[in-house]
Amino acid sequence: MTLPASWTHTPPCPSEHYRQRALERQAVLTKPPGSLGRLEEVAVSLAAQQGTDQPAVDQVHIGVFAGDHGVCAEGISAFPQQVTAQMITNFTHGGAAISVMASHLDATLEVVNLGTVTPVPDLHGVNNLQIAPGTANLAVEPAMTKHQVCEALRAGDNVADQAANAGAQLFIGGDMGIGNTTSAAALACALLAASPAELAGPGTGLDAHGVSHKADVIGRALVRHGDNREPLTVLASLGGLEIAALTGAILGCAARGIPVLVDGFIVSVAALVAVRQQPVVREWLHFSHRSGEPGHRRVLDALEAHPLLDLGMRLGEGSGAAIALPLLRSACALHNGMASFADAGVSNKEA
Description:
Blueprint: H1 5-8, H2 16-28, H3 38-50, E1 60-67, H4 82-93, H5 97-105, E2 108-115, E3 126-128, H6 146-165, E4 170-176, H7 180-192, H8 196-199, H9 208-225, H10 231-238, H11 241-255, E5 260-262, H12 265-277, E6 285-287, H13 295-302, H14 319-337, H15 341-344
Parallel strand pairs: 1-2, 1-4, 2-3, 4-5, 5-6
Helix pairs in contact: 2-3, 3-14, 5-14, 6-11, 7-9, 7-10, 7-12, 11-12, 12-13
Family: Belongs to the CobT family.
Pathway: Nucleoside biosynthesis; alpha-ribazole biosynthesis; alpha-ribazole from 5,6-dimethylbenzimidazole: step 1/2
Keywords: Cobalamin biosynthesis, Glycosyltransferase, Transferase
Protein backbone atom coordinates (compact mmCIF):
# COMPACT_ATOMS: atom_id res chain seq x y z
CA MET A 1 0.00 0.00 0.00
CA THR A 2 1.26 3.48 -0.87
CA LEU A 3 1.57 6.29 1.65
CA PRO A 4 -1.10 9.02 1.73
CA ALA A 5 -0.17 12.13 -0.27
CA SER A 6 0.09 14.19 2.92
CA TRP A 7 3.17 12.16 3.90
CA THR A 8 5.12 13.29 0.84
CA HIS A 9 3.45 16.55 -0.26
CA THR A 10 4.28 19.73 1.65
CA PRO A 11 1.18 21.23 3.34
CA PRO A 12 0.22 24.87 2.71
CA CYS A 13 1.29 27.66 5.05
CA PRO A 14 -1.28 29.69 7.02
CA SER A 15 -2.18 33.04 5.49
CA GLU A 16 0.27 35.80 6.34
CA HIS A 17 -2.26 38.34 5.00
CA TYR A 18 -4.90 37.35 7.53
CA ARG A 19 -2.30 37.06 10.30
CA GLN A 20 -1.38 40.70 9.78
CA ARG A 21 -5.04 41.76 9.65
CA ALA A 22 -5.68 39.94 12.91
CA LEU A 23 -2.69 41.60 14.55
CA GLU A 24 -3.92 44.99 13.37
CA ARG A 25 -7.36 44.31 14.84
CA GLN A 26 -5.90 43.22 18.17
CA ALA A 27 -3.98 46.50 18.30
CA VAL A 28 -7.16 48.64 18.20
CA LEU A 29 -9.47 46.65 20.50
CA THR A 30 -10.53 48.29 23.76
CA LYS A 31 -7.79 46.84 25.95
CA PRO A 32 -4.13 47.46 26.67
CA PRO A 33 -1.94 45.69 24.08
CA GLY A 34 -1.26 42.11 25.09
CA SER A 35 -3.60 42.21 28.08
CA LEU A 36 -5.47 39.10 26.95
CA GLY A 37 -2.18 37.22 26.81
CA ARG A 38 -2.19 33.87 25.06
CA LEU A 39 -5.81 34.32 23.95
CA GLU A 40 -4.63 37.02 21.53
CA GLU A 41 -2.01 34.67 20.07
CA VAL A 42 -4.61 31.92 19.65
CA ALA A 43 -7.03 34.20 17.82
CA VAL A 44 -4.34 35.53 15.49
CA SER A 45 -3.10 32.03 14.68
CA LEU A 46 -6.61 30.75 13.97
CA ALA A 47 -7.34 33.74 11.72
CA ALA A 48 -4.21 32.95 9.70
CA GLN A 49 -4.90 29.22 9.60
CA GLN A 50 -8.53 29.67 8.56
CA GLY A 51 -7.84 32.59 6.20
CA THR A 52 -10.54 34.79 7.69
CA ASP A 53 -11.17 37.94 9.71
CA GLN A 54 -13.67 36.01 11.85
CA PRO A 55 -11.97 32.88 13.21
CA ALA A 56 -14.23 30.28 14.81
CA VAL A 57 -14.00 26.78 16.24
CA ASP A 58 -17.67 25.93 16.50
CA GLN A 59 -17.46 22.90 14.20
CA VAL A 60 -15.04 20.47 15.85
CA HIS A 61 -14.25 16.92 14.75
CA ILE A 62 -12.78 14.56 17.37
CA GLY A 63 -11.15 11.36 16.15
CA VAL A 64 -10.17 8.76 18.76
CA PHE A 65 -7.85 6.02 17.49
CA ALA A 66 -7.46 2.71 19.33
CA GLY A 67 -5.00 -0.15 19.11
CA ASP A 68 -3.19 -2.70 21.23
CA HIS A 69 0.55 -3.13 21.79
CA GLY A 70 2.56 -6.35 21.76
CA VAL A 71 5.06 -4.82 24.17
CA CYS A 72 2.51 -5.52 26.91
CA ALA A 73 4.06 -9.01 26.94
CA GLU A 74 6.94 -7.36 28.82
CA GLY A 75 4.70 -6.45 31.78
CA ILE A 76 4.83 -2.68 31.23
CA SER A 77 1.18 -1.88 32.06
CA ALA A 78 -0.87 -2.00 35.24
CA PHE A 79 -4.00 -2.80 33.20
CA PRO A 80 -4.75 -5.84 31.00
CA GLN A 81 -5.00 -5.43 27.23
CA GLN A 82 -8.71 -6.27 27.05
CA VAL A 83 -9.32 -2.79 28.50
CA THR A 84 -8.64 -1.28 25.06
CA ALA A 85 -11.59 -3.11 23.49
CA GLN A 86 -13.76 -2.47 26.55
CA MET A 87 -13.06 1.26 26.34
CA ILE A 88 -14.05 1.33 22.67
CA THR A 89 -17.47 0.09 23.76
CA ASN A 90 -17.47 2.68 26.55
CA PHE A 91 -16.81 5.45 24.02
CA THR A 92 -19.87 4.48 22.01
CA HIS A 93 -22.06 4.21 25.11
CA GLY A 94 -21.13 7.74 26.16
CA GLY A 95 -19.36 6.74 29.37
CA ALA A 96 -15.79 7.81 28.63
CA ALA A 97 -14.39 11.23 29.46
CA ILE A 98 -14.04 12.19 25.80
CA SER A 99 -17.61 11.03 25.10
CA VAL A 100 -18.92 13.30 27.84
CA MET A 101 -16.84 16.23 26.63
CA ALA A 102 -17.79 15.74 22.96
CA SER A 103 -21.46 15.88 23.92
CA HIS A 104 -20.89 18.85 26.20
CA LEU A 105 -19.00 20.75 23.49
CA ASP A 106 -21.36 19.71 20.67
CA ALA A 107 -18.41 18.17 18.80
CA THR A 108 -18.50 15.24 16.39
CA LEU A 109 -16.89 12.11 17.86
CA GLU A 110 -15.52 9.34 15.66
CA VAL A 111 -13.82 6.19 16.97
CA VAL A 112 -11.45 4.13 14.81
CA ASN A 113 -10.24 0.72 15.93
CA LEU A 114 -6.94 0.01 14.19
CA GLY A 115 -6.45 -3.35 15.88
CA THR A 116 -7.17 -4.90 19.26
CA VAL A 117 -6.22 -8.23 20.82
CA THR A 118 -9.80 -8.68 22.03
CA PRO A 119 -12.27 -8.57 19.11
CA VAL A 120 -14.60 -5.58 19.04
CA PRO A 121 -18.20 -6.22 17.93
CA ASP A 122 -19.89 -4.05 15.33
CA LEU A 123 -20.77 -0.83 17.14
CA HIS A 124 -22.49 2.31 15.91
CA GLY A 125 -19.90 5.08 15.61
CA VAL A 126 -16.87 2.76 15.41
CA ASN A 127 -14.86 2.20 12.25
CA ASN A 128 -13.58 -1.31 13.00
CA LEU A 129 -10.55 -1.62 10.70
CA GLN A 130 -8.57 -4.27 12.62
CA ILE A 131 -5.38 -3.88 10.59
CA ALA A 132 -3.76 -6.38 12.96
CA PRO A 133 -4.57 -7.78 16.42
CA GLY A 134 -2.27 -5.17 17.96
CA THR A 135 1.37 -4.54 17.15
CA ALA A 136 4.28 -6.93 17.57
CA ASN A 137 6.48 -6.69 20.68
CA LEU A 138 8.71 -3.69 19.90
CA ALA A 139 11.29 -4.86 22.44
CA VAL A 140 12.24 -7.82 20.24
CA GLU A 141 11.05 -7.00 16.70
CA PRO A 142 9.58 -4.11 14.66
CA ALA A 143 6.14 -3.17 15.94
CA MET A 144 4.61 -2.93 12.47
CA THR A 145 5.33 -3.94 8.91
CA LYS A 146 5.57 -1.15 6.35
CA HIS A 147 2.21 -2.26 4.97
CA GLN A 148 0.59 -2.00 8.40
CA VAL A 149 2.02 1.43 9.17
CA CYS A 150 0.92 2.71 5.76
CA GLU A 151 -2.60 1.39 6.37
CA ALA A 152 -2.71 3.13 9.74
CA LEU A 153 -1.42 6.41 8.29
CA ARG A 154 -4.05 6.21 5.56
CA ALA A 155 -6.78 5.55 8.15
CA GLY A 156 -5.81 8.78 9.90
CA ASP A 157 -5.71 10.67 6.63
CA ASN A 158 -9.21 9.39 5.83
CA VAL A 159 -10.49 10.82 9.12
CA ALA A 160 -8.92 14.17 8.23
CA ASP A 161 -10.68 14.00 4.86
CA GLN A 162 -14.02 13.31 6.57
CA ALA A 163 -13.43 16.24 8.91
CA ALA A 164 -12.72 18.52 5.95
CA ASN A 165 -15.82 17.34 4.06
CA ALA A 166 -17.93 18.01 7.16
CA GLY A 167 -16.66 21.59 7.38
CA ALA A 168 -14.64 21.11 10.56
CA GLN A 169 -12.91 24.25 11.80
CA LEU A 170 -10.70 22.34 14.23
CA PHE A 171 -9.54 18.75 14.74
CA ILE A 172 -8.81 16.98 18.02
CA GLY A 173 -7.11 13.59 17.98
CA GLY A 174 -7.33 11.14 20.85
CA ASP A 175 -5.77 7.78 21.69
CA MET A 176 -6.71 4.55 23.42
CA GLY A 177 -4.31 1.65 23.75
CA ILE A 178 -2.96 -0.19 26.77
CA GLY A 179 0.83 0.02 26.51
CA ASN A 180 0.92 3.08 24.29
CA THR A 181 2.95 5.27 26.67
CA THR A 182 5.77 2.74 26.26
CA SER A 183 5.53 2.96 22.48
CA ALA A 184 5.31 6.76 22.56
CA ALA A 185 8.29 7.06 24.88
CA ALA A 186 10.32 4.74 22.64
CA LEU A 187 9.41 6.81 19.58
CA ALA A 188 10.36 10.05 21.32
CA CYS A 189 13.65 8.59 22.56
CA ALA A 190 14.57 7.51 19.04
CA LEU A 191 13.62 10.81 17.42
CA LEU A 192 15.20 13.00 20.09
CA ALA A 193 18.18 10.81 21.06
CA ALA A 194 16.87 10.92 24.62
CA SER A 195 17.32 8.52 27.52
CA PRO A 196 14.51 6.05 28.36
CA ALA A 197 14.98 6.92 32.04
CA GLU A 198 14.14 10.53 31.16
CA LEU A 199 11.00 9.82 29.14
CA ALA A 200 9.46 6.70 30.70
CA GLY A 201 6.56 7.43 33.02
CA PRO A 202 3.84 5.72 35.08
CA GLY A 203 1.33 5.39 32.23
CA THR A 204 -1.68 3.56 33.66
CA GLY A 205 -0.29 3.76 37.19
CA LEU A 206 3.06 1.98 37.51
CA ASP A 207 5.08 2.37 40.69
CA ALA A 208 8.76 3.37 40.68
CA HIS A 209 9.89 -0.22 40.10
CA GLY A 210 7.44 -0.56 37.21
CA VAL A 211 8.67 2.67 35.61
CA SER A 212 12.28 1.47 35.92
CA HIS A 213 11.37 -1.82 34.24
CA LYS A 214 9.53 0.09 31.52
CA ALA A 215 12.65 2.18 30.86
CA ASP A 216 14.70 -1.02 30.57
CA VAL A 217 12.25 -2.44 28.02
CA ILE A 218 12.43 0.78 25.98
CA GLY A 219 16.23 0.61 26.17
CA ARG A 220 16.18 -2.89 24.68
CA ALA A 221 13.91 -1.67 21.90
CA LEU A 222 16.24 1.20 21.09
CA VAL A 223 19.25 -1.10 20.93
CA ARG A 224 17.34 -3.34 18.53
CA HIS A 225 16.22 -0.37 16.45
CA GLY A 226 19.60 1.33 16.12
CA ASP A 227 20.27 4.98 15.23
CA ASN A 228 17.91 5.43 12.27
CA ARG A 229 15.77 8.56 12.79
CA GLU A 230 13.89 8.56 9.48
CA PRO A 231 10.26 9.16 10.61
CA LEU A 232 8.57 6.29 8.77
CA THR A 233 11.22 3.79 9.82
CA VAL A 234 11.03 4.89 13.46
CA LEU A 235 7.23 4.82 13.40
CA ALA A 236 7.10 1.28 12.01
CA SER A 237 9.80 0.00 14.33
CA LEU A 238 8.65 1.52 17.63
CA GLY A 239 5.18 2.97 17.12
CA GLY A 240 1.62 1.82 17.56
CA LEU A 241 -1.22 1.48 15.10
CA GLU A 242 -3.15 4.28 16.81
CA ILE A 243 -0.07 6.52 17.00
CA ALA A 244 0.51 6.04 13.27
CA ALA A 245 -3.14 6.87 12.57
CA LEU A 246 -2.86 10.01 14.69
CA THR A 247 0.24 10.98 12.70
CA GLY A 248 -1.72 10.48 9.47
CA ALA A 249 -4.63 12.54 10.79
CA ILE A 250 -2.37 15.43 11.83
CA LEU A 251 -0.59 15.43 8.47
CA GLY A 252 -3.94 15.13 6.69
CA CYS A 253 -5.48 18.03 8.58
CA ALA A 254 -2.51 20.30 7.85
CA ALA A 255 -2.69 19.33 4.18
CA ARG A 256 -6.37 20.32 4.13
CA GLY A 257 -5.95 23.55 6.10
CA ILE A 258 -7.59 22.36 9.33
CA PRO A 259 -6.02 23.55 12.61
CA VAL A 260 -5.26 20.80 15.13
CA LEU A 261 -5.58 21.09 18.91
CA VAL A 262 -3.00 18.63 20.22
CA ASP A 263 -3.77 16.57 23.32
CA GLY A 264 -1.19 15.10 25.71
CA PHE A 265 1.85 12.84 25.53
CA ILE A 266 0.70 10.27 22.98
CA VAL A 267 -0.74 12.77 20.51
CA SER A 268 2.23 15.10 20.96
CA VAL A 269 4.57 12.25 19.97
CA ALA A 270 2.43 11.65 16.88
CA ALA A 271 2.70 15.39 16.17
CA LEU A 272 6.48 15.14 16.57
CA VAL A 273 6.60 12.38 13.96
CA ALA A 274 4.42 14.48 11.63
CA VAL A 275 6.57 17.58 12.08
CA ARG A 276 9.78 15.62 11.53
CA GLN A 277 8.29 14.43 8.24
CA GLN A 278 6.75 17.77 7.20
CA PRO A 279 8.11 20.71 9.28
CA VAL A 280 5.41 23.14 8.10
CA VAL A 281 2.84 21.01 9.98
CA ARG A 282 4.01 22.81 13.14
CA GLU A 283 2.26 25.97 11.92
CA TRP A 284 -1.12 24.18 12.09
CA LEU A 285 -0.82 23.02 15.69
CA HIS A 286 -2.18 24.38 18.95
CA PHE A 287 -1.18 22.67 22.20
CA SER A 288 -3.84 22.14 24.82
CA HIS A 289 -2.17 20.99 28.02
CA ARG A 290 0.96 19.67 29.67
CA SER A 291 0.52 16.01 30.58
CA GLY A 292 1.50 14.48 33.89
CA GLU A 293 3.69 12.04 31.91
CA PRO A 294 7.32 13.11 32.46
CA GLY A 295 8.28 12.60 28.81
CA HIS A 296 5.77 15.16 27.61
CA ARG A 297 7.88 18.14 28.63
CA ARG A 298 10.79 16.98 26.47
CA VAL A 299 8.52 16.44 23.46
CA LEU A 300 6.91 19.85 23.91
CA ASP A 301 10.34 21.48 24.10
CA ALA A 302 11.34 19.78 20.85
CA LEU A 303 8.19 21.19 19.21
CA GLU A 304 8.75 24.65 20.77
CA ALA A 305 5.25 24.32 22.19
CA HIS A 306 3.71 26.15 25.13
CA PRO A 307 0.45 24.47 26.19
CA LEU A 308 -2.50 26.50 27.38
CA LEU A 309 -3.15 24.40 30.49
CA ASP A 310 -1.21 22.46 33.11
CA LEU A 311 -3.72 20.41 35.09
CA GLY A 312 -1.73 17.25 35.76
CA MET A 313 -3.97 15.30 33.36
CA ARG A 314 -2.70 12.09 31.72
CA LEU A 315 -5.87 10.29 30.66
CA GLY A 316 -5.48 10.48 26.88
CA GLU A 317 -8.55 10.01 24.65
CA GLY A 318 -8.21 13.65 23.54
CA SER A 319 -9.68 14.68 26.91
CA GLY A 320 -7.15 17.40 27.70
CA ALA A 321 -7.68 19.02 24.30
CA ALA A 322 -11.44 18.92 24.81
CA ILE A 323 -11.02 20.65 28.18
CA ALA A 324 -8.98 23.39 26.48
CA LEU A 325 -11.41 23.92 23.59
CA PRO A 326 -13.51 26.56 25.42
CA LEU A 327 -10.37 28.70 25.68
CA LEU A 328 -10.06 28.70 21.88
CA ARG A 329 -13.74 29.56 21.57
CA SER A 330 -13.29 32.41 24.04
CA ALA A 331 -10.29 33.69 22.09
CA CYS A 332 -12.39 33.81 18.92
CA ALA A 333 -15.36 35.46 20.65
CA LEU A 334 -13.16 38.20 22.09
CA HIS A 335 -11.34 38.80 18.80
CA ASN A 336 -14.55 38.96 16.79
CA GLY A 337 -16.83 40.72 19.25
CA MET A 338 -14.86 43.36 21.13
CA ALA A 339 -15.22 46.96 20.05
CA SER A 340 -12.35 49.04 18.76
CA PHE A 341 -11.35 52.23 20.53
CA ALA A 342 -12.89 54.23 17.68
CA ASP A 343 -16.16 52.26 17.70
CA ALA A 344 -16.58 52.58 21.47
CA GLY A 345 -15.48 56.19 21.72
CA VAL A 346 -12.75 55.19 24.17
CA SER A 347 -9.42 57.01 24.19
CA ASN A 348 -6.49 54.90 23.12
CA LYS A 349 -3.11 55.13 24.81
CA GLU A 350 -1.13 58.26 24.07
CA ALA A 351 1.52 57.97 21.36
